[in-house]
Every structure is written in structure tokens, then in C-alpha cells.
Fold each of these.
Amino acid sequence: MSAADILSLLPMVILAGGILLTLILIALRRSHLLIFTAAEIIILAAIVAALLHLNQEPQIIGDIIVVDRFGLYYQILLLSATLVISIFSYISLERLFPDKRKEEYYVLLMLATLGSSMMVISTHFISFFVSIEVLTISLYTLISYYRERDKAIEAGLKYLVLAAMSSAFLLFGMALIYAVSGQMSFHALFAVATNYSGSSNVMLIAGAGLMIVGIGFKLALVPFHMWAPDVYEGASSPVSAFVATVSKGGVVALLLRFFTMTDLYRYQNVMLAFTVIALLSMLAGNLLALQQRNVKRLLAYSSIAHLGYLLVAFIAGKGMGVQAATFYITIYMLTILGAFGVVTILSKTDSEADGTEYYKGLFWRRPLLAALFTLFLLSLAGIPLTAGFIGKYFLLTAGLGNRQWLLAFVLVASSVIGLFYYLRLIVTMISQDEDYQKGLSPGIPSKGGLLTLMVLGILVLGLGLSPGWLIDLVRTLP
């Protein structure tokens, strides 16, 4: 590997080296504040390194990795999300487990981020699989890290079993594709895809289908979604936010790159499978969310629906479809981080604020937090003047541009269904209720957490009013 290759991988080198440095710091001195500060500095340094390389020419490292503008954009996005999650994690760990050893948590958080960030620049089955396993194995422990909580171990075990199953599907699909092509790099698979038209090669389509199943589990798409609400509820709110953003964002970027580079869009059976999955995810996610009274489970089903929305742009194909999907995942990550951040900040020392009873009359007790939560919920619902509305408009434009009439109609109809449960939670916050006087009052907000939420709120509102700069940036990605 040349010096230029190492320099292009500098963000990941900083993150990997930072993980080793953090382990050494933990061995020398156990201090939650020290390790948290070190993790923040390491992640910030990796973001700065990625920003400095954003405008450079793509660097191809063998057939395994390509460091280009697309990959660097996603790395910056994932690292920034981890930066926010680490702030919420500090608040959560200090509040829920003041006496627990907390330092190893940040090592796992950075390790999972390293796996997700490497995935977005992968162009080979080997680098793809190693990256996704680094991410997944770290998540096993993160999900069950608060093991004193009733459902944490259960959530970790469920994710362990289903993630192992999804990895098996991915490996089997890769094996079938390799049996046909004799190649494992995405570049080489493009030549294979062009030699087979339609459904003339059953093994190639079967391999792609098995990979769809594996990716469907990772993204919690219907019908591979059953683990999501239990894991979101059992894990701490910052870890749930990580699963909903960094984990899924990395897989989305990999999916876009894989299908674009191999041109699997030409296989109608494969795209039909994605169309069915998108329809089921949009409808089932919103319909199941209607029945939820637990805020974290509600956000879990909402996440399923939003990934279904994103597939509308993905199915639209190259060009505008990829741009719309990238824009939407950015908006979604900002918004869902804010939503889970509110849950984290409202949590008390003995429990998380995941029941709707914690939000009764919140406007009269914590007006700023209630206003920010309302903004995030309205953005998730796609209400005008929020970033979520611009994101859904971009998705619709991409879908209709490719004549995906059914997908566009279901996107609009299911968004109307979703509006109901978001508004129901907003009405709960506005209502005046005395239940909070019986032990259901939320925790005292952290100043650092409030400041972080305000920054996220400004971004969500600002992108709703003036999204042009982000749209222009996304359009420059290959």
C-alpha cells in the first residue's frame, strides 16, 4: 500500500488508531469524562480528515476499496452522527448507571462506527463482509451493555441470532454470485451482469435474492423487521439511535454503490422484489406504529416505514434516484437523532422516558424540549417547512420521474397514516395531565444535551426552509 493510499484512508486510520489509544487510556486511568473527551476528539479529527479529502480525486486501493466523494460524504455523515450519539451516551450513562464502568462503551461505539464507515467505501465482497461483521459484532455488546435493565440482554440475544442469520444469507448469496462469475469485486461483477440479460441466469438472480434477504435484515425491512421494535426498546436510547442511523446509513450507502457498480437494476425480478419490500415496509411500518404506546417502539416501526420510503428512490435507479436516497437518509438521520435525543434527555435515573405517560403535558413543564420534539416529529411526518418534507418531495420526484406510480401513491398514502401517530404524540404533550405528579415526571435536562438538540433542530428547520446547499452537494456525488 502506497503513501497516497494510506493518506486517502486517513479518517479510518485516525479512528482505528484512536480506538487503540482509548484502550491504553482506559488501562492507565478509568475516568468517564476523560474517555468521553478523548472519543470526541478522535471522532472530530476523523471528520476533519474526511473533509480535507472531500474534493480530491478518487483513490482506488486494489479492487477492495475506493475512496471517492460519495464514500467520504457518507463517512462524514456517519462520523457526525456518532459524535452526537456519544454526547447523548455520556448523559445516559451518567444518569442511568452512575456507578457502572462506562469507559469500554466508547471503544465499542467507535469500533462499530469504523465498521460502518469502511462499508461505505467497500467495492469487494471481502471488504463488505468484514466491515459489516465489525459493525454487527460491536452492536451485540452495545445493545446489551446496560445489562442491569430487564430487556437489554434479551434484545442483545435477539439481535445476535437474527444478525447471524442475515450474515448466513449474505454469505450464501455471495457464494452463488461467485460461482457464476468467479469474481468478488463489484467492478468485475459489472461485466458479468452485462453478459446475462433478464432472468437467463437463475444462480445469479438467486444469489442477488439471498443478498437482498441479508440486507433486508440489516435495514429491518418488512418481512425481515421483527427484531427492530424489541431491540429498540431493550437497548438504551443512544444505542437505538445508533442502530437507526449509523448502522442503517452504512448499509444504505453500500446498497447504492453495489447496485450502481454492478448494474443489477437491469434484472427485473430483483427490482420487483425490492418493490414488494418497499410497499410492505411503508404500509406495515405505519400501520403497526399506530398501535404503539411505547415511544421507542413507535420510532422503531416509523424507521421501518422510512426505509421503505427510501427504497422508492433506490428503485428509481442511477442518477436522481441515488441522489434522492442520499439526501433522504441525511435528513432522516438528523431527525431521528433528535427524536432519540429527547428520549435520552427526559430519562430519569431509574428508567428511560419511553412511555407516553412521560410526555403528558410536556409543553407546560419543558416547553423547549416539547417544541424540539414536535419539530422532529413533524419532520418525520413530512410536514412543510421541515427538512422531512423536502426529503419526501425529493423521493417523489425520483419515483415519478421513473414512472413508479404505485410506489409514489403508497408513499403519499402511508405518510398520511403516519401523520396520525405523530400528531397523537404531539397532542399528548399539549394536554394537561396530573399523572406526572405521581412519579412520571421526566428527568432534568442536561445543558449539553439541550444544546445538541437545538443544533439538530436548527438544521432540521433550516434544511426545510433552505435545502438548496445540501441538494447541490448531493448532486456532486458520483
Note: Strands lie at 59-61, 65-67.
Amino acid sequence: MKSRFDHDMTMDTIMRRWPGTIRVILDHGMLCVGCPIASFHTVSDAAREHSLDEDKLIDDLTKEMK
């Protein structure tokens, strides 16, 4: 069983653990796939960097974390 989402997880960890989240990330206009910073940025960091609503991003990501 895959572990649950944790706010300290990096974007890279999230995409590797739950590949379905890649589509969500791309749909939000983020280019985290292949980005060298993805292994350092948390969801909060990425949302802030891309001027996105963090709660909406987390909600959309967690829907894909099955």
C-alpha cells in the first residue's frame, strides 16, 4: 500500500508515488515533470512559486492519490 500524502513531501516524491498526479500538475500549468527543483519543492512551495491556490492544488492532487 502506498503511503498517505504528507505536506512535507516533495513534488518529485508525489509524482513518483502517484503517477496520476502528473496530469493534475500539468493541468494546473506547472512543469514539475523533469524539473530539477521538483525534488526540493513541497506542494506549498510549488503553489506559491506558480501563484496557485494551495488548497485547490492539494485537493486535486489527493483525488488522484488512490
Note: Residues 11-64 form one domain.
Amino acid sequence: MELLSATLDRVKPSPTIAVTTKAAELKAAGRDIIALGAGEPDFDTPQNIKDAAVAAINAGKTKYTPVDGIPELKQAICAKFKRDNGLDYTPAQVSVGTGGKQILYNALMATMNPGEEVVIPAPYWVSYPDMVLLAGGTPVIAPATLENDFKLTPEALEEAITPKTKWFIFNSPSNPTGAGYSRDELKALTDVLMRHPHVWVMTDDMYEHLAYDGFEFCTPAQVEPALYDRTLTVNGVSKAYAMTGWRIGYAAGPGKLIGAMRKIQSQSTSNPCSVSQWAAVEALNGTQDYIAENNETFVRRRNLVVEMLSAIEGITCPTPEGAFYVYPSIAGLIGKTSAAGTKITDDETFATALLEETGVAVVFGAAFGLSPNFRVSYATSDEALKEACSRIQSFCAGLT
């Protein structure tokens, strides 16, 4: 009898984690490595949030909590949705999980049936299709191309929807492109969804507060209130508050769906870390001033990376509206050969050769469903970014 489940044959490990792990191994072996693969702010968690966690520990708030979040955090989440998005939710409509990834996974596990489909714009965050597959569903990839600024068109969404479609997963600003949808662009998509009342909307708003150059974030249920009853609005504290390791994600949506997600979580992880929950209360309720300060740093880094990569012949690097990624195209480099003799046949061979020959770790575009591109995370120091981009420039200059 085979030990492992056949379900595992349908999914692959996270490519972003694989790149980060490979870079760490090379660095441990003595290589001079600059890792631009991880989607993690290099800022420390703000002091007020750390103080709240310490206070929670000292107050003995280290026991089990309700499965999907303490009342104080659910109330803070409701206040956040009202304050930032104009959305009214009650605590009974809120779920708190161990990171945004668990929230998305719970929702899919609680709703998918064999043969049902999930529309996912590409480029996509690497985990979306595999979570759909784990839940027994079928991912349907809808391309959002460079020519359209990596944004899904209403026509492409309409074409991807079938009678079997259960969910549409939407992410803005985007991982991996940083593309952000304006209100008008999002309204064009919600107009399509209004014509298909059987399709639910799962919106991943994790990069909501990382928006630049006057870009104004909006979320589907905000833009089209008629979608409220079939939308799960997902968010978390990891990116804006530099709390990746605290592992707190949350969502709000219809009570029946939230209850089903609670059932899944009760039989898997149970409650998120109690101390992290109290830290998240302070993150949402406390001062938000440092978000704008951090964003100034991100804008400077974004501009640095875009300028240096755009100077490379054969690379096209759009300027993103948000998040902390750029997603350059290497269409002009395909078919060339590196100084060490590697033929650049696709973005994966490009990323592999770049790491081996220069020590710069990036994630190849095929991992995100759209090639030939690569993703750079600029959530690291200016000095590291300058050196990394200089190495990429030298590497590309050596291609023949």
C-alpha cells in the first residue's frame, strides 16, 4: 500500500520558499548571496506592537483562545474594515487564522467540490492554484499580460468564467507584479461578476496599505456593494505592520461561510497564537503613522530598482503601484548565452544562471504563471538592492 496520498501528485512545493532556501544554503556554504526572493519587509515590528505582546505574556494571556480569534481582535478587525474600506461587518462574520494563507486555504477547503473551478489571474501568488488543487478544485488561469500592465481585463475574466466556476480570486496590489487596480478598473471586473451570480469573490488585500504615487486602494465589496453577500475579504498584519512571523491573517464575509471555515480550523490548527492575536489588536487599533514612513522607503527602493533594471537592454520593467515587487520581462534575452555558457531558454534558466554566476537570488516567472519574467522583492536595504541590480546589469551585459 502506498504511504503518500495521491493528492500530493497534484501540487508542488512553494517556488518562492525553494528559492529562499537555496539562497540560504549557498550563503551558509560561504557564497556571497543577495536574496531578493522573499516577500518580507526588512523593517522591525513596531515597538508598540512588541510592547503589547510582552504585556499579553506578562498578563498570562497565553492560553487557548476561541478557535477563530479573540473577541477583542474580531472587534478591531470590524473597526478596520469600517475605517479603511467602508464595509460593515459583525464579529460573527470575522475569521482569524494563522496567516492569510490559512484563511484562503480554509475557505477553499470549506467550499470546493470535485469539478468546480476557480478563476485565477496570472501572474498569481504561487500558492493559489495549489491550494485549489488540494481542495479538489480546478484552477482556471486567466492571463493578465504586460501589455495590459499585468491587470486582468473584463473580457479575459468573462472568457474564464463557466457554469462550473465557484470562486474568482483577486489580489491588488499584486504579488508578484505590484500592479494595483483603480476603482474604475475594478468596477469593470465587478460588472462582469454581477452577470454571474453563481461566482463568489475571494479578495486578497494583504498589500492594501503598500500603495504609492497617489494610488487609492479599493476592494470589490466596496466598489460593488451588491457583491457583499458573496465576497470573502481577506487581509492580515504581516506586510503593512512587518509582522510576517507573527502569523495572523483574517477575513470577513457571510456568516455561513465563516462558520464553515471555523469548522475546518477547529479540526486542523485550532486557534492562532494567543500572544500574536493581542499584538494584532494593537497593530490595528494603535498608531498607523509608520506605514506612511515605511512606504516612503519602499518608493525610493522601487524607483532605484526600476531605474537600474530598465537600463538593461532586453529587459522591460514596469513601475508598480504597490506592494514591494517588480516583475520585469526578459523577452529580449531569450536565446542568449551567459558568460559561463548557460543558454537562456526561459526565465527559469535565467534565474538559475543568475544565482550561480552572480549570487543574486530572484524567483522565475513561470512560478507565477506568466513568462518570460522574474520577480524581485525590494523589501531589503538600498545597498543590497544597488549591488544586486549592478550584478544583474553585469550578467546581462555578458550575454551573447
Note: The radius of gyration is 21 Å.
